TrEMBL record:
It comes from Geodia barretti (Barrett's horny sponge). Pfam families: PI3K_C2, PI3Ka. Coiled coil: none annotated. Belongs to the PI3/PI4-kinase family. This is Phosphatidylinositol 4-phosphate 3-kinase C2 domain-containing subunit beta. GO terms for cellular component: cytoplasm; phosphatidylinositol 3-kinase complex; plasma membrane. Residues 333-492 form the PIK helical domain. InterPro entries: ARM-type_fold, C2_domain_sf, PI3/4_kinase, PI3K-type_C2_dom, PI3K_accessory_dom, PI3K_accessory_sf.
Length: 492
């Protein structure tokens, strides 16, 4: 007995209900690509009076949205395990593949494309949502349809400019955002607290409504810096601004108020450049973004979620490992511009300054031009090597390679000098490894005295498994006193 054809309105209503339930299950996130696919499906299946408009996603005011989140708070608390996420991507497959031969096109407007093509777009949108959820919140797990390219290319061979697409903002606190008429996302790339790219912003956007309230930009942000110029420890800093019109507005016509921010690492612990769709929980409240803060998103249940799309070229771009450090200065070393006695007095005067005093541009040029001679003059000073590192013009080749060469020949007269290399502005991984190698020479009693500073330095590590964390854990295993002290300082 042949099954009866599936009515189009009933099928579409069932698909939309499943998609909405899936979005609720995955933290009330509705990507713009999925919203566009649902709208296209509803336009394809006419007359729309056959569909439930509440399921289709008409605009609902802010108070109703707040009540909706409150009523379904328990659903958010329920865990989303890997089995449920895997099945979520197959929900539409069951409907589309199982019924595509039986559906009838009676009463359907096919001017914009067939119903099967519209359902296929919805399925692609669901796959995008599940993939984004897995990449962001289920590390180490990817859905079966995600094929990660195996080809790896070095970062130094890349000439394209780094860019990222600002897609949307989800899980909005309507009551807190009600005072603003528009919202704008501002982004910049930092390394050691200093910008390495131009500052770019998205166009202002209002709150829109589909299944849920969201702010949609769908705008590519171009930072104007080639991929080969990105340091491994660089981080993308994003700030959400609320815009409102007042009598004291600036020349642009908006009064900008920062309301949320987030910091994202651009390279993982393997040195692979970030790619694909991501969800980032933003930090809010009275805190102001500091580029030196920990580069970890907000994982609380109430955090607003920023949807980004990092450009994917189909190849994995990897940062090259540090080359072996030579025991001699490269042949490109420059001769000092002054006599050795005058040079020594000038460098010694800089090293004797207070560590909080800044260097002038002339001082930085003098130090950098004589970078391979500093070992003979200031190697015994705790401020010698930090002065050189802070005078580095930038952290990309060939300057980066010169710094690594100097680190390889710089002697360690006192392990305590390694504390100077833990400055948050010295974010390079090789510099921090050098500091840890020096500090490893401390006895247990001395190490316990410096534990507060060492624990605080963990906040500025780009990766959880860094050189400092490994040193502290190794010494804690060998010494009960270090273990007890470390536990107390970590818990504070």
């Amino acid at each position: 007995m042949q099954p009866s054809p599936v009515p189009i309105p009933a099928l579409v209503q069932t698909v939309i209900s499943c998609v909405r339930l899936l979005c609720e299950r995955l933290l009330y996130v509705e990507p713009p690509s999925l919203s566009d696919a649902i709208n296209h499906l509803r336009q394809t299946c006419k007359p729309t009076s056959c569909l439930d408009d509440n399921i289709g996603g008409v605009a609902i005011d802010g108070q109703q949205r707040e009540d909706e989140y409150s009523d379904k708070e328990e659903k958010i608390r329920s865990p989303v395990n890997r089995t449920s996420v895997t099945r979520a991507g197959d929900v539409l497959d069951d409907y589309i593949i199982g019924n595509e031969d039986d559906i009838t096109d009676e009463g359907v407007d096919n001017s914009g494309g067939g119903i099967v093509e519209a359902l296929e777009l919805v399925r692609e949108g669901v796959h995008h949502l599940v993939t984004m959820y897995c990449l962001s919140l289920l590390p180490g797990y990817l859905p079966e349809w995600w094929a990660e390219p195996k080809k790896v290319v070095p970062l130094s061979k890349q000439t394209r400019v780094f860019r990222v697409k600002a897609c949307a903002l989800h899980k909005l606190p309507i009551i807190d955002f009600r005072r603003y008429s528009h919202f704008q996302l501002e982004a910049c790339i930092y390394h050691g607290g200093l910008p390495v790219s131009k500052r770019t912003s998205s166009p202002p956007a209002k709150i829109s409504h589909s299944f849920f309230s969201s702010i949609v930009w769908k705008k590519w942000l171009n930072f104007g810096v080639p991929l080969s110029h990105l340091p491994r420890e660089c981080r993308l800093c994003l700030t959400l601004h609320g815009l409102e019109t007042t009598s004291s507005t600036n020349d642009r016509g908006w009064n900008r108020t920062p309301i949320a921010w987030v910091i994202q690492k651009l390279f993982d612990s393997r040195g692979v450049l970030i790619f694909g769709p991501r969800l980032l929980g933003m930090w809010g409240g009275d805190e102001v973004m500091d580029p030196l803060d920990s580069p970890y998103p907000n994982t609380s249940r109430d955090a607003v979620l920023l949807e980004l799309l990092f450009e994917d070229s189909g190849e994995r771009v990897k940062y090259e490992e540090a080359p072996p450090i030579t025991s001699h200065a490269p042949s490109s070393a420059k001769k000092p511009g002054a006599t050795p006695s005058l040079l020594y007095r000038g460098l010694k005067k800089m090293a004797d300054r207070d560590r909080f005093s800044s260097l002038s541009m002339e001082d930085e040029k003098l130090i950098w031009s004589n970078r391979f001679l500093l070992r003979d003059h200031l190697s015994s000073s705790p401020r010698g090597l930090p002065l050189l590192l802070l005078s580095t013009p930038h952290w990309r080749p060939p300057h980066r390679d010169d710094v690594w060469a100097v680190l390889g020949v710089w002697p360690c007269h006192d392990p305590v000098h390694g504390l100077e290399l833990l400055d948050p502005q010295l974010a390079d991984g090789i510099v921090r490894k050098t500091a840890v190698s020096w500090l490893s020479g401390l006895h247990d009693d001395d190490l316990c005295d410096f534990l507060p500073q060492l624990v605080q330095s963990l906040r500025h590590d780009n990766y959880e498994r860094g050189a400092m964390a490994e040193l502290l854990l190794r010494r804690a295993v060998l010494s009960p006193r270090v273990a007890h002290s470390l536990y107390c300082y970590v818990c504070i």
